[in-house]
Amino acid sequence: MGQYIPPLRDIQFVMHELLDTEGTLKQMPAHADMDVDTINAIVEEAGKFASSIVFPLNQSGDLEGCTLNGTEVTAPKGYKEAYKQYVEAGWASLSCDPEYGGQGLPISLNNALYETLNSASIAWTMYPGLSHGAYDCLHEHGSDELKGLYLPKLVTGEWTGTMCLTEPHCGTDLGLLRSKATPNDDGSYSITGTKIFISSGEHDMAENIIHLVLARLPDAEKGTKGISLFVVPKFIPNADGSLGERNPVFCARLEHKMGIHSNATAEINLDGAKGWLVGQPHKGLQAMFVMMNAARLGVGMQGLGLTEISYQNARTYAKERIQMRALSGAKNPEKEADFIIAHPDVRRMLLTQRAYAEGARAFTYWMALEIDKELSHPDEAVRKAAADNVALLTPIIKAFLTDNAFECTNHGVQVFGGHGFITDNGMEQYVRDARITQIYEGTNGVQALDLLGRKVLGDMGAKLRAFGDIVKAFVEEHGVNPAMQEFVNPLGDIGDKVGKLTMEIGMKAMQNQDEVGAASVPYQRVVGHMVFAYFWARMAKIALEKQDQDDFYKAKLATARFYFAKLLPETAGYIRQARAGVASLNEMQDDWF
Amino acid sequence: MGQYIPPLRDIQFVMHELLDTEGTLKQMPAHADMDVDTINAIVEEAGKFASSIVFPLNQSGDLEGCTLNGTEVTAPKGYKEAYKQYVEAGWASLSCDPEYGGQGLPISLNNALYETLNSASIAWTMYPGLSHGAYDCLHEHGSDELKGLYLPKLVTGEWTGTMCLTEPHCGTDLGLLRSKATPNDDGSYSITGTKIFISSGEHDMAENIIHLVLARLPDAEKGTKGISLFVVPKFIPNADGSLGERNPVFCARLEHKMGIHSNATAEINLDGAKGWLVGQPHKGLQAMFVMMNAARLGVGMQGLGLTEISYQNARTYAKERIQMRALSGAKNPEKEADFIIAHPDVRRMLLTQRAYAEGARAFTYWMALEIDKELSHPDEAVRKAAADNVALLTPIIKAFLTDNAFECTNHGVQVFGGHGFITDNGMEQYVRDARITQIYEGTNGVQALDLLGRKVLGDMGAKLRAFGDIVKAFVEEHGVNPAMQEFVNPLGDIGDKVGKLTMEIGMKAMQNQDEVGAASVPYQRVVGHMVFAYFWARMAKIALEKQDQDDFYKAKLATARFYFAKLLPETAGYIRQARAGVASLNEMQDDWF
Lengths: 593, 593
Hints:
The structure is a homodimer.
Chain A: H1 8-18, H2 21-26, H3 36-64, E1 67-69, E2 72-74, H4 79-88, H5 107-120, H6 122-141, H7 144-156, E3 159-164, E4 180-183, E5 189-199, E6 208-215, E7 228-233, E8 235-237, E9 243-246, E10 249-254, E11 265-278, H8 284-320, H9 344-376, H10 380-416, H11 427-437, H12 444-456, H13 462-478, H14 485-511, H15 514-546, H16 551-567, H17 571-579, H18 583-586
Parallel strand pairs in A: 3-6
Antiparallel strand pairs in A: 1-2, 4-5, 5-11, 6-7, 7-11, 8-9, 10-11
């Protein structure tokens, strides 16, 4: 079943050498007491919990899956016990509001926790993960009464949460949803409808499940402007927080899926279930977006977690398995054959995994710190700039990291050869688990439209230019350093290309909006690489300066060079594809397909 | 569970309009009686068998898997009965030698049969598929006695066959294999060892299973020059062909795998099993290569089959599922939303599937005709030229088509969105099944080394130049036609680029052999695209001429334009990656990983 060693050194490198996490947090009154030692201690404990408690359940949970008896679901063996430990250790409350019992720690720390949990098991981690999303949503949009009733138990993790959006006939297009909410005399609503694909939708790990449900009020207009958000508990809590009557919100079936077998993907029937309005009537989609944006970052972290765990196990295998001699001569002459890490294409796959994992770590931890700024920085201009970066880059985190994770978990299988295809070895589960990350919380195609259509062209490129200015500042600062030119030149180049490509697509889109959809997916990969090239250039700078200190920096520098030599160049193909436009997509008439 | 409609019109287009299958076969005395009507009738019947008998078993077989009781394996429900029908209808004997009861039909027809069978179910088709490989190997290398005893039953399909190569410690590197063969007094050998990953290794679909086993004789030298090939039957046949004693060649376990659940992947223990030498002592690997080359083509056909079936079902879904409005305005205003085929990125995915399927069909049917020439053409120069093309392009068929199939089956899932991840809808099975095609019969990385190291650089580029001359002749013939320039120009361009890239890598490899391994995988994709660009340009030419006849040709032309606009450009990235060389792979020391 392999192994997981939390990459503490690399996390610390990112948090303290690449980013000044401590110094940045200290600017915020809420986090002024953060210091390096505290951060490291918490991350280390998180890694211990993930590797020793969660990771051992990942493969057994995949094989066992969830069990539906009547309308009750049992999670795989050990899941409930591990979750109890999670709650008792206080991990659920890490970054929650102290007013409701949370520890008030920065998002940056919660993010590090989630990296390690996602490497250990994305399916297990989705139980607390969705709860945290429900907490966020209620915290931002719920009335004081709802917050007082629900948040304390969501903060501790005693209750878990879900997001009930999708219906059989609509996923991407929530404007089509049909679930209905009719007002009751007591201020509550009766909600009726069928929701599908509800992750963590029913289970035995917590005493209550708090569903956040989108439905239409009787006077709602059609489309997305007629959708309201409701909180629908499995058990209706009494005023003192004890559990009251069972609400008619039942699991009707569990889906059989390609992966994440141990997370219960439920069809949820609401049969006049009692719910309470969250936020304003007909403004449910906006309220839910809080949760969806957090979820998209969470999915990006799943991508990082899966890339890292697949890398660790492929690397170990490549250093133990002997097969064939290196073309350039025996590397391990004392053995019958060379370790397969001697073969250039095996190295290519391992370095691809490594470069994408480390690039993702730099990017996501930077992003978490931007979110901390957005939420907690005293300077409004800083908050605004951070919010813009978060808005622009959320679809990149979601889509670029999960596309990379699918590629990388497949490299992990390929390094194992036939043994990678065998369930026992664990590598193929990472592929099956990674596959959903490209689909849920908005498919990666939807992310690409969000990036290009809304986030870039929607504000005439302002947010993209702001991020581009950060890149340009780095290029200008380090362009004069000869040792940095191997990194700064391609970074400047990809930055220029993104600018030109964006202009070109923007001009074409004024003639035909379909040009956006025709270019968006390859465009997303090009922008993703610009972001990664920026973070790899920054990491290379540190590694160049410290390479004589220890091999950690030499490895970082080698991985940076690999990134610029072998991965960034794929943009050459994507730019051509993005520029190719819509004509060849539209010549084919629908009935010719 | 979807649907499968054999693409008869497109197969006929390839066989009769793109390729002159009838005319070419008529040059061969063995196939002089072939005509278009006979070819079409056989292909139509093959399609009926595949779609009505095999396809309905694909999903149920995946869910049920194979069952091991003691050492006996039961295939999923219906598999045995379908196989009986296959044998009775004579499909197994289609292209086998009439001397042993075969029908002596060309490989081109067998190839068409296998396209449809692989769309219907690759896991079921591997039972007859491996048998056909065993037939080929015995037919070419067996003594008259062995041929007389085994071939008639392999030809009818009453007995099935396997290839027993892999051992726990060696797959790619067969030089490490340890199974032993010691001579008996009666001319047979006693064989002892453990073989793993034996596809179709044990089952209840046929009364006997003929294992072709690699093992070492007592006096064998180390490495690949000390390996001999043996035929090891499950039941030792009596001279009259009836079954005699049970040979101690037993299934010890079945693997749990990511996909192809319904094909039994067996661990086979040979415990002094009786075997008979096939071919010369110590020349087993060369003899097995006959089977492996056929198997590699077979795996390429699995790639085509899976791409086609995933496309068919994704296309149907995209025309039925409504979700969101097209960005450029409502396409189906009478509906609540547009059919998702209206969205450019959905079209991109569907057209990618279609272009790769149709390109693969053109390429593989051309290749099958080359094999017919190699085997049956009266002119030795024609046979030699065909053999060179087959040798050069076998790794491309195997690797390029299966990499494309993995991409395309994933597009199929993505078109379905969340519903693609759900087992019931059948789309995720195609991904899981496609994944093994990139691994077995030599991983795609091994294919890339075979292509660049052995087939191209190994003969100083002679075979590649010969194929390049075919491409050049087309470019020169049609370069003067203005209507063809949109196809001929990029074809000529990629041909030039392949030539330059090959020269460059060849020069670098003279300094450092690891340059071959560093460039081989992206190089393989570049050459694969040159081949596809050639066949797409040829198809475009026909479609241009006939586009006013019916929409079939308009669709072909549109797909050709899509291929050149959106798929061929990915070579820009791969060329840069191939040129980036080995330096960035080797800077990283093994212990830094």
